[in-house]
Design a protein that fits this description.
By secondary structure, the chain is mostly helical. The protein has 5 helices and no strands. Helix 1 (2-30) packs antiparallel against helix 2 and helix 1 (2-30) packs antiparallel against helix 5 (102-125). The protein is elongated and about 50 Å long. The relative contact order is 0.18.
Length: 126
Amino acid sequence: MERLARQAHAVAAMLFVVGVAVQVFLAGAALTQLGGLGDFRTHADFGYTVVGVLALAVLLTAIGARVGRRAVAATFGLLVLYVIQTALPALRSGAPLIAALHPLNAVLLFTLGGIIATRAIRAAAA
């Protein structure tokens, strides 16, 4: 049962990383400079739903897989970064310099997600 839980955690973590990559694509596809219409609704909707569910799934599967306190803390950090990510665009009118951290936070989400996924894959294989 523990092996199955670790595999589920690895899959959730990999899907999260893929979800962040899809987010970057959707943002790029919306840019008018790249031929998009400037409509970021698909990017926002995907981020608020799919990526959010995946971030929560990574945390819950980490707890279920009993990967250890440090790994669970890292997945909790991932969820916190996700919450920050969703809040940053709302700051664009009042605090545009803080809102501008949205792409940088996405890089942090992708990096931490990749580290978690790599470790989860190794743990599932062991």
